[in-house]
Amino acid sequence: MIKITLPDGSVKEYNKGTAVIDVAKSISEGLARNVISAKFNNTAVESVTELHEDGSLVLYTWKDKEGKTAFWHSSSHIVAQALEELYPGIKLTIGPAIDNGFYYDVDLGENPISDKDFPIIEKKALEIARGKHDFKMRAVSKSEALSLYKSQGNEFKVELIESLEDGTITFCDHDTFTDLCRGGHIPNTGIVKAIKILSVAGAYWRGDEKNKQLTRVYGISFPKQKELTEYLELLEQAKQRDHRKLGKELELFTFSQKVGQGLPLWLPKGAALRERLEQFLKKAQKKAGYEMVVTPHIGQKELYVTSGHYAKYGEDSFQPITTPKEDEEFLLKPMNCPHHCEIYNSKPFSYRELPKRYAEFGTVYRYEQSGELHGLTRVRGFTQDDAHIFCTPDQLDQEFKNVIDLSLYVLGSLGFENFTAQVSVRDLEKPEKYIGEVENWEKAENAIINAAKEKGLDFVVESGEAAFYGPKLDFMVKDALGRSWQLGTIQVDYNLPERFDLTYKGSDNELHRPVMIHRAPFGSMERFIALLLEHTGGNFPLWLIPDQAIVLPVGEKHEKYAKKVLNSLENNEIRALIDNRSETVGKKIREAEMNKIPFMLIVGENEEEANTISVRRHGGDDLGSLSVTDFTDLVTNEINSTLKSF
Questions:
Q1: With helix as H, strand as E and coil as C, how does 239-308 read?
Q2: Fewer CB within a 10 Å sphere, N or C end of the chain?
């Protein structure tokens, strides 16, 4: 007999060799019908996997993230089989599940694929799925695996197998299809009822521009056709909210090939938007005791060698800048924290002077692969709302909770109300990914978890997601379309103070190490604005939007009164403009709607005589005639209701 521990802590005994699905049946027939994957002792297994030892078992359905991962990975196998049957001679490489769906990287040879081919691929994949073929895992020797793929001329699979140890290699079979695979599948292909090929794109083998370019086929699948239909409707809404589309329409930012890929250019309205966001955070930071600093865009290579960034991120940085001086090298700044460490190091500190809170809107540079660049969400130059707090160990708990309060204020003021917190800790099985002493890691992880509990945050703990120098807390925010994004991060770091030999004099007159907190509520200005654009559809909060109102004179003879209204609005700090073109009021209203201006103020003969304005709200609501004073109060009250004081 073996003992199986279930997620609720209960322990049940089963005969050695009992399959996962039979464990599910012993709990509930309904559960067994819905189980599509599982983990045994934290390793992905199949529903038909036989259990031969004591251990912990978690069962997953479509509703679970892990269940979707197995479902979409299995679907990538189905699509791979369809591609092989439709395009004989192609070479398959890898096909993982991703956040929404899956992809398969393929060397198509002389067989280009376009969107006209998508329906054919989908039809073939669904034919395969309806066959209800079981997914079966089997172990193979390294020599057998190499022999198979060498005979097919698939150098990609051969390269993967050569890096694996004999005895760890497995294949997955279904129908007539075989693929190199570690596992984690649904019971059979018949569970997949709907498949959609979403797009194709170029992708270098193993993400290296020096390697061959492959075709990445993106797809998604569902256990019900209805769910696919709903997803495609959501996808269409997302296209309309795409920040690249809205940024162009609202004249916020642009890109130039001459300037360089991934380097955004902010237009006047976008620059003003950024400035308002910066001032909003600077005001809150000042109240919270932060001091603003400014650091250069470059630093000596040795600075980032000391911090550890060069060893961990050197490949993702721009190449070193050499100078006429021998052996002198600089890097475009990949992170702000080493610079802030040196600011702290510029003078001695006593425990009475801590905490020190240094904040900066610092621009950093990373050499992202060209195929991974995406609008403002993935760029090569971006500005972080960075701050670093240097405090005593006794101050850490309160400082961390204060940063949580600031982050919640930022998210709430910008309409991000639906979120969970993610505590990212080390992967204990991969210690080489991290720097610093285990004792310090344990203290930092416990500090974050305790602070999250004390603040009453809804949080989850994710292993392996920590930064290389310390654990962190991220806010995972859901937008208006239900998509999840990481916004704002807080990290506890015992390591950089050690590497930079940071100290303070304690009450015992001895030197001690401060603890460092890294903090960025926005994350990066570029990515934050992109997500805010998509969340709001361009209808920014009233306090933030570039133009809060537009005055629309009915005719040329009303322009003088329109300018009087504009002056009054500006005197009351309302951002407004006049559309005095010789167009109809109807056309002016339509264009103001397209530009997402919150209020349209129509002025004609009646309004001039009554010293009022006719107010129309974006979206069509007619608020009637108001005095400029009443309209000013309306705007002020609405701003105050969303932008509370910190």
A1: HHCCHHHHHHHCCCEECCCCCCCCCCEECHHHHHHHHHHHHHHHHHHHHCCCEECCCCCEEEHHHHHHHC
A2: N
Q: Which residues have C-beta within 8 Å of that of residue 504, sequence separation ≥ 6?
A: 348, 349, 350, 351, 353, 354, 390, 392, 511, 512, 514
The active-site residue, picked from 174, 243, 380, 388, is 388
Q: Which residue in the list 39, 333, 366, 535 is annotated as catalytic? A: 366
Pick the catalytic residue: 472, 527, 588, 616? 472
Establish whether 518 is a catalytic residue. yes
* Residue 386 bears catalytic tag: yes
Write out the DSSP string of 553-621: ESSGGGHHHHHHHHHHHHHTT--EEE--SSS-HHHHHHHHHHTT-SEEEEE-HHHHHHT-EEEEETTS-
Name residue 1's amino acid: M
pLDDT for residue 176: 94
Three-state DSSP class for 453?
helix
Please tell me what DSSP assigns to residue 188. Answer: B
Tell whether omega for the bond before 355 is within 30 degrees of 0, i.e. cis: yes
Residue range 464-475, pLDDT digits in tens: 888 887 889 999
Pick from 244, 281, 243, 248: which is nearest to 267 by CA? 248
Structure confidence by residue, pLDDT tens digits, 262-287: 999 999 999 999 999 999 999 999 99
Residue 194's SS3 state is strand
Choose, from 518, 588, 596, 616, the residue flagged as catalytic.
Answer: 518
- Quote the Cα angle for 277-278-284, to 5°: 95
Whether 381 contacts 255, CB under 8 Å: no
Q: Which amino acid is at 264?
A: P
CA neighbor of 304 nearest in space, from 321, 324, 287:
321
Q: Which residue has the tokens 């086929």?
A: 217
Active site residue 283: no
388 is catalytic: yes
Closest CA to 27 of 14, 41, 15, 44: 14
Query: SS3 for 531?
Result: helix
Q: Residue 524 in contact with residue 624, Cβ under 8 Å?
A: no
Binned at pLDDT 50, 70 and 90, residue 636 comes out as very high
The catalytic position among 81, 124, 157, 337 is 337
Tokens matching residue 535: 């969340």
Each residue's pLDDT tens digit, 19-50: 999 999 999 999 999 999 999 998 889 888 99
Decide: 449 and 461 in contact? Cβ < 8 Å.
yes
Nearest-Å Rg of the Cα atoms of the chain is 29
Element holding 382 (H helix, E strand): strand 381-391
Give yes or no for a contact between 185 and 77, defined as CB atoms under 8 angstroms apart.
Answer: yes
Q: Is 384 a catalytic residue?
A: yes
Burial, 622: exposed, middle or buried (Cβ in 10 Å; 0-12, 13-18, 19+)? exposed
What H or E segment, with its residue span, contains residue 484?
Answer: strand 484-493
